[in-house]
Amino acid sequence: MHIEELQIPAPHSLMEDYLFQFEKVSPFYTYSPYRKESWIERVEWLEGHPLNHRDELVQGLMEYNQQVNNHKSAFANITRLLDQRSCVVIGGQQSGILTGPLYSIHKAITILQLAEKKEKELGVPVIPVYWIAGEDHDYDEVNHVYIQSKDGKVKKIKLEEQPSGRMSISHFLLAENTLDDFIEEFFAGQIETEYTMDLKQTLHGMAAQSQTLTDFFARIMSWLFGEKGLVLVDATLPFIRQLEKETFREVIMGNEQLNEAFMKQSREIVEAGYHRQVETEEHNAHFFLYEDGKRTAVLRKEEGVFSLNGGEKTFTREDLLVLLENEPERFSANVVTRPLMQERLFPTLAFVGGPGEIAYWGLYRQYFSLFGMELPILMPRMTFSIVEGTVQKYMEKYQISLTDLFGQLGEKRDEILRSLQTFHFEEVFDQFRGRLRQQYQEIIQEAGHMETGLIKIGEKNLDKILEQVNYFEKKTGEAFLKKNEVLLRQFERIQLSLFPMDKPQERVYNIFGYLNKYGLSWFKEFVGDSYHIDSQHIVCFAK
Fold first, then answer.
1. CA 411, CA 247: separation in Å to the nearest integer?
2. 152: pLDDT strictly greater than 90
3. Strand 2-6 and strand 331-333: pairing?
4. Confidence category of residue 9, pLDDT binned at 50, 70, 90
5. For residue 406, what are the domain limits?
6. Structural domain includes residue 471
7. pLDDT at 427
8. Which of 423, 279, 283 lies closest to 363 in space, CA to CA?
9. Helix (H, G, I), strand (E, B), or coil: what is residue 123?
């Protein structure tokens, strides 16, 4: 597999400055990820803030990773967490069906490679950890995948089953055969290859052991990455909630101060000219409660009084603390407090995130300091594009460069079309319209000397003549495009492969479409290749 790299624009100004002008965003972040000293300083901070629950963490991770059939390499990594010097590179994603969009896979690759690289550089054990956001209740984000269908279109395949209300993905039990039916529908949309049958059998086997999407997601990730030592954790696990109790207590007790610090930094980031990634109400308590199985946001009504969003039920601060002590599993962090929970749970060297995640972590530095914490190193996940064989053939045929491919594809297509025009009809029609207007206006003016009413009639007549000229130009253009429809289809195929729905490939397609075409050997090469973990976009030419 051939690899090339190129620089593509960052998705927003905050990310652009984070990558290339860190001093502009330094008030919002603790460490520059591309500064060597940042890593040494972070290790020193971790040494000065040791975890006191490593035994409980290791035991819980062991039990969960056994449950999802993770590889012995992952268990070896879990054991290494008992070393007081050890730290983690962590990142995660929602538990999308069949692992969801490609960026979930790209994030795992980044975590693995960054952990391996930093362990060698820093001389301390660095464990790769993938956080499965099983608490999330946005089912519509995880219940589907997109595929390149056999007829050359982007097709959405969706689970039909739907939970009632705001139920966490890890709590939603799927009906029998739901996953099996989805697997069959997915592969019905793929070309059959030498790998298809084995992939289907493997997935059906994991589906038979899975009651939820999170179960299924974790088993697939174990199968794909366990041999590389990737450790998995689900945010909803009971042992996690036990370890989070003290932090939830602090969130409840210091809720007003937490929100004040968060809102202050939100204002500062807007004043600095950036978009605020997390919108929240002033009275948001920044955690959820499970009520009748539904994950419901908690609001702060007044000093020491809280309520469930959309309901009349209220809690005093003391009520929440008692509930936390007796039923910690009923509590769930939100987008603001989830990073704090993660940092209290793990000795985090670095967090791997997408552009949006890096941006919203930029809102948290001040409130972290209230809890005696600092932001970890925030490393942008690597971005990839997989260039398939057909696209490679078209690139060679039309001499399409990487720069053309990622930013100027439309211009390249139009340039080629112009070069194919022996009859430059657009120019010819423009010149003809100019001459026609000039000569006809002369006729209209001469006729107007005889009778002024003829001027208006002549102008209307000219408009009708020009309409016919424009119509003929349009039909000429259509004939030209029809003559070159093969070229247009091939450029459309490139667009469909790399920018489906006008989005980056990694935000739309799923890894199993590529596994079906290229097999597990290709995937192992894709995962195992040595990449530069920097701001460059990685282009993988698949074969």
1. 54
2. no
3. unpaired
4. confident
5. 402-504
6. yes
7. 76
8. 279
9. coil
Contact 517, 191 (CB under 8 A): yes
What is the number of other CB atoms lying within 10 angstroms of the CB of residue 321? Answer: 15
The gap between the terminal CA atoms of the chain, to the nearest Å, is 6
Contacts of 468-473 with C-beta under 8 Å, sequence gap 24+, read 469/429, 469/432, 469/433, 469/436, 472/429, 473/425, 473/426, 473/429
Report helix, strand or coil for 410: helix
What's the length of the chain? 543
pLDDT score recorded for residue 145: 97
383 pLDDT tier (thresholds 50, 70, 90): very high
d(CA 158, CA 347): 38
CB 509 within 8 A of CB 500: yes
Q: Find out whether 206 and 219 touch, Cβ atoms under 8 Å.
A: yes
Give the count of beta carbons closer than 10 Å to the beta carbon of residue 165. Answer: 12
Percent of the chain with pLDDT over 70: 98
The dihedral built from the CA positions of residue 200, 205, 210 and 214, taken in this order, carries a sign that is negative
- 3-state DSSP assignment of residue 409: helix
Is residue 456 in some structural domain?
yes
Is residue 422 predicted with pLDDT exceeding 70? Answer: no
3-class DSSP assignment, residue 101? strand
- Number of alpha helices (DSSP H) and beta strands (DSSP E) in the chain: 22, 15
pTM of the model: 0.91
Strands 348-353 and 87-93: parallel
Written as six digits, the tokens of 404 are 């053309």
Residue 391 has pLDDT above 90, yes or no: yes
Residues 6+ apart with CB under 8 A from 184: 200
**Residue whose structure tokens are 């989005």:** 503
Query: Distance between CA 61 and CA 81 in Å, rounded?
Result: 10
For the chain, how many structural domains are there in total? 1
Strand partners, 2: 541
**C-alpha Rg value of the chain to the nearest Å:** 29
Q: What is the pLDDT of residue 438?
A: 87
- CA 19, distance to chain mean position in Å, is 18
Q: Is residue 31 part of a domain?
A: no
Query: Can you tell me the mean pLDDT for 437-455?
Result: 83
C-beta neighbour count of 163 within 10 angstroms: 17
Q: Are 98 and 186 in contact (CB under 8 A)?
A: yes
| Lowest-confidence region among 84-88, 350-354, 418-422, 499-503 | 418-422
If one counts every other C-beta atom within 10 angstroms of the C-beta of residue 164, the result is 8
Distance between CA atoms of 505 and 491, rounded to whole angstroms?
15
In a domain, residue 487? The reply is: yes
Q: Where are the alpha helices (DSSP H) in 53-161?
A: 54-67, 72-80, 102-122
- Using the structure block, give the residue that is written with the tokens 């001040």: 366
